[in-house]
Amino acid sequence: MFTQIVVWLNALANALGRVLLAPVGWMPGWLSATLVGAVTGVLMIIVFKHTSNQQAIKRTRNRIKANMLALSLFKENLWVSFRCQGRLLASAGMLLWYSLVPMAVLTVPMILILGQLALWYQVRPLDVGEPSVVTVMLSDAEPEAVDKIELASTDGAKVVTGPVRVPSKQMVCWELEPTTVGMQQLDFVVGDKTYTKELSVGDVFQPTSIKRPALLFGDVVLHPRETPFAADSTVQSIEVTYPDRSSWTSGTNYWMVYWFLISMVAAFAAKPFLNVNL
User: In sequence order, which ranges of the chain are alpha helices (DSSP H)?
Assistant: First the structure.
């Protein structure tokens, strides 16, 4: 049930992402990553303001300031120092408690946003003629499918090697070379059924789906773009190897660090203007 809810949320995130993230394809990677991080940080601080108990946080902050002042004024009084330190510890715990609700509210949107950003920054599309391995995982319930599955002819790529069939793992692999720029489609045939997978080709920024996943919670969270295969499907997943994107701001894995830093800087910069207590 939770997995299906994620599938529905991914469908909504994909629809919004196609519109809201379309400008990413027109900008340099560092610029789009910076703008996305800044906008996300401001949105996070706005959500925090409206989902947290701002008055309680303000009172707790004031108590922390008072106890810090008391520590400075009565540092020679051991009893007062211990009491102030205890109050500081309790106040820190209360701030954490007050942040639980807004953090819970932000968790799902942040996961969806990161899933959409990963489509743009985690890997880059293939170049024309650049080899890639496509791996199809098949259902254990249909062991004969390993020998039956075929890659239908496609104008977007040519087969270099394969199929390589591994019955012990219910896995079949092909090495392909793209021949046409753009979003291509790979068609795999088992009997009278056809299973598809996107293939992203070109030297521009465009969303790139590494894997069409099985209907498993972790897979659908990490690979949101393509509809997952049903639990009883003969094909359980199709994965394409894409090259890493090289950049300190919008490259493979680095984009997450950069996004986090920019969003935090933007959130704290916007805090006084939005009158938010943290």
Answer: 2-20, 29-51, 54-73, 78-121, 145-148, 217-222, 254-274
Question: Does residue 127 belong to any structural domain of this protein?
Answer: no
User: From CA 152, how far away is CA 124, in angstroms rounded?
Assistant: 25
- Residue environment code for 86-114, b if the CB has 16+ CB neighbours within 10 A, otherwise e: ebbeebeebeeebbeebeeebeeeebbbb
62 and 170 assigned to the same domain = no
Are 172 and 189 contacting, i.e. CB atoms less than 8 angstroms apart?
A: no
22 with 112, same domain? yes
For residue 74, pLDDT over 80 is answered with: no
DSSP β-bridge partners for residue 157 = 178
Separation of alpha carbons 121 and 249, rounded Å: 9
pLDDT at 80 over 90: no
Domain encompassing residue 231:
132-240
Summarize pLDDT for 37-58 with one digit per residue, the tens: 999 999 999 999 999 999 999 9
For residue range 151-210, list pLDDT tens digits in order: 987 778 999 998 999 999 999 999 999 999 999 999 999 989 999 999 999 988 899 999
Structure-block tokens of residue 35: 């703008």
Q: Do 231 and 137 share a structural domain?
A: yes
State pTM to two decimals.
Answer: 0.89
Whether residues 165 and 230 fall in one domain? yes
Domain count, the chain: 2
